[in-house]
Amino acid sequence: MADNSPETNFNPPWYLKGAMAQTLLNSAKFRNKGIGDFENNSREKIIDGGDGVNLQGFLSAHQDRTAPLLILFHGWEGSDKSAYMISTGRFFYDNGFSVFRLNMRDHGSSHGLNRGFFLGTLIDEAYTGVKEIIRRFSPDGSACLAGFSMGANFCIRVAKKASDGNYAGLKHIFAVNPPFDPLESTRRVDEIGLIRTYFLKKWKRSLAIKQRTFPEIYRFDSLLSLNGCIPMTERLLEEYTSFSSLEDYFGRYNLKQGYLDSVTVPLTLLTAEDDPIIPISHIASSEMSSQVRFIHHPRGGHCGYIMNRNWEAWYLEPMLRAFQSPGHHIPV
């Protein structure tokens, strides 16, 4: 269900209208100056992802023990400490939520927890982790879930698995700029110099940490000399996995078919027409069940939606109203 009503319009001031400005500000550390109760009450938790997998996360438990729980998924090479994770976590903590920031495998400082390395196909451990977080930390056995970029892709797959399994623990899921075709999105990353440089620097640093942690398993030197996410991914798949090709690997978490049409968990999708990484057509052309709400704006970049000089994100208030509503057809 597309939503183009005036109430949903995001209209930033002129100096924030550019797609690249929005995209880069999304992760700008200066957005999160200072330390508050959210950070002071943050505690590391190790989560069972099933099949011997351990995932790292950080819980900011609200002083109200009946507070609802929000779980946050970061984007690729992001972490619990990413600017958008901190700003979103602070906002919801200040609005009466306990917040759990889950790090995917090999993100944050979790490289030593598992011998295997991160792949975008590892949905089972993320889904198992979400259920474990709810079991351990939710006062009423339920939670809301929000994710950004790659984390939003994971959110949609979690929604599908919860729908297929009739799992009632998730009340509402909010996915911000999910890549529906991860192969196309990765190619676009490589085409944009600033974005390619940003992701390559972080990914190479992560792979180097993994190699130092498990030197008996990994020799990533040949990958680290490459200068693109596509060639690096291709080499990684060839040397360390059984995937037959890039298309085989990325196709395993392509969301174009078989996801939104069968989701029974209330799910809100937010994206921008000027996103330099994710074509909006990939989402707009998808079949959607009655439980899916699709909101898009002309501007916002990739997971930006920065709306003022305080660097606040527009999506926080709509996300809050979605999570506070018993249904998903909420005014935004």
Can you give a write-up of this model?
The protein has helices at residues 19-25, 37-40, 83-94, 123-137, 150-164, 182-191, 193-213, 221-224, 229-240, 246-251, 280-284, 316-324; strands spanning 2-3, 42-50, 53-60, 69-73, 98-102, 143-148, 170-176, 267-272, 292-297. A nine-stranded mixed sheet has the order 1-9-8-7-6-4-5-3-2, with helices on both faces. The protein is globular. Mean pLDDT is 94; it is low at 1-7 and 328-332. It is α/β, with parallel strands linked by helices and 332 residues long. 47% of the residues are buried.
Chart the SSEs and their pairings.
Layout: E1 2-3, H1 19-25, H2 37-40, E2 42-50, E3 53-60, E4 69-73, H3 83-94, E5 98-102, H4 123-137, E6 143-148, H5 150-164, E7 170-176, H6 182-191, H7 193-213, H8 221-224, H9 229-240, H10 246-251, E8 267-272, H11 280-284, E9 292-297, H12 316-324
Parallel strand pairs: 1-9, 4-5, 4-6, 6-7, 7-8, 8-9
Antiparallel strand pairs: 2-3, 3-5
Biggest β-sheet strands, sense, barrel: 9 strands, mixed
Taking strands numbered 1, 2, ... along the chain, how are they ordered across the largest sheet?
1-9-8-7-6-4-5-3-2
**Number of helices, where a helix is a run of at least 4 consecutive DSSP H or I residues:** 12
Using the CA coordinates, give the radius of gyration: 19 Å
Low-confidence residue ranges: 1-7, 328-332
Percentage of helical residues? 25-40%
- Calculate the terminal CA-CA distance, rounded to whole Å: 14 Å
Q: Give the beta-strand count.
A: 9
What pattern of helices and strands is seen along the backbone? EHHEEEHEHEHEHHHHHEHEH
Mean pLDDT: 94
| Global structural class | alpha/beta
Strand content: 15-25%
- Write down the overall geometry: globular
